[in-house]
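Design review, sub-item: ligand-bound model
Attendees: FS, YL, KQ
YL presented the inputs for the S-adenosyl-L-homocysteine complex:
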Amino acid sequence: MIDPQALSDTLAGLGQPTFRSRQVYEALTRGLVTDFDQVTSLPRGLRRELAARLRPLTLEPRETRAASRGAARKTLFATGDGLPVEAVLLPAGRRTTVCVSSQVGCAVGCAFCASGAAGLRRDLTAEEMVDQVLHCARELRPAGKQVTNVVFMGMGEPFLNYDETLRACRLLNDPHGFALAARAISVSTAGVAPGIRRFAAESLQANLAVSLHAATDELRDRLVPLNRRYPLDALFSACAEYVAARRRKLLFEYVVLAGVNDGDGQVRALVRRLRRPLYHLNLIAYNEAGGEFVRPRAPELAALRDKLVQAGVSCTLRRSAGGEIGAACGQLALRSLDEEREERQPDGRRLSSRRRPRA
Ligand code: SAH
Ligand code: SF4
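KQ shared the predicted structure:
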């Protein structure tokens, strides 16, 4: 993916008519080309001139891993400056979803998530986010399949990289380009209240998910450190604004940590906060990510859901795929490209970078 402005500036600099810019942009997005030589509608000389000036790919795919059961696939990329980025392709029924990373690492440091373990390295650009999707679309093409949904639920906190994340959403949605419906795009935030307000006011009608994980400030302060900056009252007032502005469903994600956030106190607080029209709660079983937390068993999870539903909360359990390839929610870790290779050794050695939870 190339910044459309840089593309049109370069073509203008080469004295080309404006239609060339759209031609190349369409070839990159709809045509999924990775090389100017594949843009056969361009004169040969121009293809060479462009290749000397612009790079059509911002990320280099290094390795793809597929889960043996299910069809989750994780791709590890290297950025131009050698940083690791991961994206996950999740086919499920008629949907094929790409889970995109918005940052290299994450500054939020939630207690149960591997992505924040090493802190933030840098923000990704919109082009680097879009390239994750285009790569997955290329992988699907031989089977005649397409990317139907994109979720910003990989590594990073999208609203701490707001402008580039929104630019990526708009590029994906652009009817002249990749043309993915806004409703097929979802952004997940750990609760950056000003970001939620800004998102509510955007003309782009993409979906929003809020990672809640606790319904009391005392517990949420420990699990999601960002709560100290935007406590629950501030968070929910932004959420109310979103729902009032959009009049559409707002999804809350809740990673269930056995014995930590599944007790009756949290259930009561959840009911008080979430028994509202258009609020929906998704319970996610904690995936092993190197911390000391325990995954709840299926019957416990179902019992929690039943309690919440009986109390009037719209609530479902979410299946999470890709655990065996370290591709499930919270398992995308900031590790070096070398470590990733090491992890693949047949001797079954585990990830080297583990950490203790901060809570
Ligand atoms: N930073 C954003 C988006 C990326 S995380 C956010 O936090 O919302 C996407 C989802 O995966 C979040 O709901 C996150 O809380 C969840 N998650 C993180 N670690 C997890 C784990 N170990 N098991 C299950 N889900 C996890
Ligand atoms: Fe960052 Fe989201 Fe992981 Fe929290 S759950 S550390 S916000 S990626």
